Amino acid sequence: MATTIRSPQGIKIGHVDDVQELRRTRPAVVPERYVRDHCERPDRVPTNRSTTQVPVIDMSRLLGRESQNELAKLARACEEWGFFQVVNHGVDRALLEKMEGVAKEFFMLPLEEKEKYPMAPGTVQGYGHAFIFSEDQKLDWCNMLALGIHPHHIRNPLLWPKKPQQLSETLETYSMNIRRLCQRLLGAIARSLGLREEMFNEMFGEAVQAVRMNYYPPCPRPDLVLGLSPHSDGSAITVLQQDLGSAGLQIRKGNDWVLVEPLQGALVINIGDTIEVLTNGKYQSIEHRVVTNKEKDRLSIVTFYAPSYNINIGPLPRFIDDKNLAKYRTYNHGDYSRYYVTNKLEGKKSLDFAKIRK
């Protein structure tokens, strides 16, 4: 039930329980490694459950006669929220449902089957826990399967599960559709900034795409734990498919955490660190986290879309002037990606890598 975890340097940092197996024992007490410090617990920061909602963008309008109105709406969503839900996005609902089904089927497999695809220390591919680097680090109430998708050379075929049989084929089709969506979204985001539609897609080269499936079992004390620690994403954009049966994603809005309510057929999009750097902070990556539920489990499927590892990233000249000096340096995206995956999730600290020190 427990896995021995070592740091990227090979230092043993303790045993980590498989959360699903732990849940099957129906513990009355949450193990100490999952219990958050008081200041980090979900109920310690207000959660906005009012009528405030993350913006909803209609992709069909972006491509139709109402494109200017929807484009202005997209610009406001990116600048004021960093998150939005997208509808009429072109990904078939049957495919979304099939992907959700095979992902959940994987997590329901016996532990010994899932452990055939272990996530190595300092990496984010395979099954298990990511971003664990110290023995006293608090753990997320979550199991995950993460896989590199594109370009093909980033894949580790040994980590692609053989069961369920349809997982690989479904994931290939799903990822191809999500990739097309990401390219269209980047085109629309570029237009919303007054840039050429193809600017980001051309700049990113052979863009990197990865997927992570997250499974959050019910937790006896959801007030004490987090499903996923607060963080921003290192991608350019991220596409999230939420489980309609259980809300859990929260985003930071000012001093509040806003719950992102799942919408039928919608996908959740968020701005990643790369777009924040390119726009010199005009569009910002937003801190987000996941909370758990006492009665319901939750599944999410996340696609990260980012520049090629050999691309250099820095603020675009049009977003720098005498009143708005460059906030970030130019850096190699591959170097940033390695930095991101070898440090624990901790708010927006990952962007310290790129910030210009004053």
From TrEMBL:
The Fe2OG dioxygenase domain, residue ranges: 199-307
GO molecular function, one term: metal ion binding
Keyword hit for Metal-binding: yes
Domain of life per record: Eukaryota
Keyword tags: Iron, Metal-binding, Oxidoreductase
GO BP terms in the entry: regulation of secondary shoot formation; strigolactone biosynthetic process
Record InterPro entries: DIOX_N (IPR026992), IPNS-like_FE2OG_OXY (IPR044861), IPNS-like_sf (IPR027443), Oxoglu/Fe-dep_dioxygenase_dom (IPR005123), Plant_2OG-oxidoreductases (IPR050295)
Record carries keyword Oxidoreductase: yes
Family statement: Belongs to the iron/ascorbate-dependent oxidoreductase family.
PANTHER family in alphabetical order: OXOGLUTARATE/IRON-DEPENDENT DIOXYGENASE
Stated name of the protein: Fe2OG dioxygenase domain-containing protein
